[in-house]
Amino acid sequence: MISTNQFKNGNHIDVEGTVYKILEFQHVKPGKGGAFVRTKLRRASDGNVIDRTFRAGEKFRSVRTEARKMQFLYADGTEAHFMDTSSYEQLAVPEAGVKDALRWTKPNDEVDVLFIDGQPGDLQLPSSVELEVTETEPGLRGDTASGGGSKPATLETGAVVNVPLFVNVGDRIKVQTASGDYMSRA
């Protein structure tokens, strides 16, 4: 069992028979009444995000998770296909549950597939990835009053991020996977 005071971002818990990943949590101790925990949870089965509040000290079944290295093959619109690099066994995961992670993953990339109670359910990504810019407007010097500014750029995976004006097509950039923010040129 796991209590609310043992919550960590990224943990998986079982709430009323449904497995959720803890995205954010906050312990709140109001001046009047009992303490509680405000959480943002992602349902493992379909990726929906919900907000839930629990009483402090409430207990949940801890969910066993295991990460396995796999190669991302392709996504066909309904499922994402992976291959175990040691046994060459192929695996299909519903695309809705891993859609956010696939924005930062190219075909043939090695990823950690997270198995939740023996079933594949999520991808563990590195904190940042390096991707090539495939499409962006040319940045014109003097465009902005402050000299800074940003423009949208499409990456080789199809994700769109805001980048500084000096980034051009063909540049490799570093992107933070959690927020989707531009970090630097690679």
Q: Summed up, what is this model?
A:
It is built from 1 helix and 16 strands.
Structure write-up:
By secondary structure, the protein is mostly beta strands. It folds into 3 domains: 2-62, SH3 type barrels; 65-124, Nucleic acid-binding proteins (OB fold (Dihydrolipoamide Acetyltransferase, E2P)); 128-185, OB fold (Dihydrolipoamide Acetyltransferase, E2P). The chain has 1 helix and 16 strands. The strands form 3 sheets. The chain has a 6-stranded antiparallel β-sheet with strand order 1-6-2-3-4-5, with no helix packed on it. The protein is flat and about 55 Å long. It starts with a strand and ends with a strand. The mean pLDDT is 84.
Unreliable parts: none
CATH A-level architecture of the largest domain: Roll
What is the end-to-end distance? 43 Å
The name CATH uses for the topology of the largest domain is SH3 type barrels
Q: Could you list some keywords that capture this structure?
A:
single chain, 186 residues, mainly beta, OB fold (Dihydrolipoamide Acetyltransferase, E2P), 3 domains, six-stranded antiparallel sheet, five-stranded antiparallel sheet, 1 helix, 16 strands, 4% helix
Set down the secondary structure blueprint.
Elements: E1 2-3, E2 12-15, E3 18-28, E4 36-43, E5 49-55, E6 59-62, E7 65-75, E8 79-84, E9 90-94, H1 95-102, E10 110-116, E11 119-124, E12 128-136, E13 150-155, E14 160-164, E15 172-176, E16 182-185
Antiparallel strand pairs: 1-6, 2-3, 2-6, 3-4, 4-5, 7-8, 7-10, 8-9, 10-11, 12-13, 12-15, 13-14, 15-16
